[in-house]
Amino acid sequence: MLKILKNLRAWDWVLLALILGITILQVFCTMTLTDAIRDLTNTIMMAQYGQATSGDIWVGAGVMVGYATGAMVCQGSTAFCASIISASLSTKLRTMLNDKVSAMSMAQIERFSTASLITRATNDIQTVGFTLVLAFRMFFSAPVTAI
Fold first, then answer.
1. How many CA atoms are closer than 13 Å to the CA of 118, on its beta-carbon side?
2. 121 pLDDT exceeds 70?
3. How far is the C-alpha of 130 from the C-alpha of 134, rounded, in Å?
4. pLDDT value at position 69?
């Protein structure tokens, strides 16, 4: 995995830092959402005893929807940035693989069937790309959530 990550461009590292920041914001929104739900529930209970108005309930609901929307936007932004990094890295890996195959001698090429080589290489690079998207999203969110 570290050998693959050495092929990231400088821009990809910037996007990884952005993913980390967005993930922190997403976790904040998600964790604060539970507090907003609790506050809204308390406001509804207080409204039954005449201590809160329907306006207070709407304000609480608006705050709750705001945090939920923030978490959703952060999740989408993280997925988008991770996809950009993954696509960039997959393109680089395909180019490197193509250069490696092009440098093979005829004796080496005869050991593999062309269809087998193309299929395996494509599947492997797609798997690496998909794994990177999931890894970039999960490697940051799990520790931040634990904090």
1. 3
2. yes
3. 6
4. 96
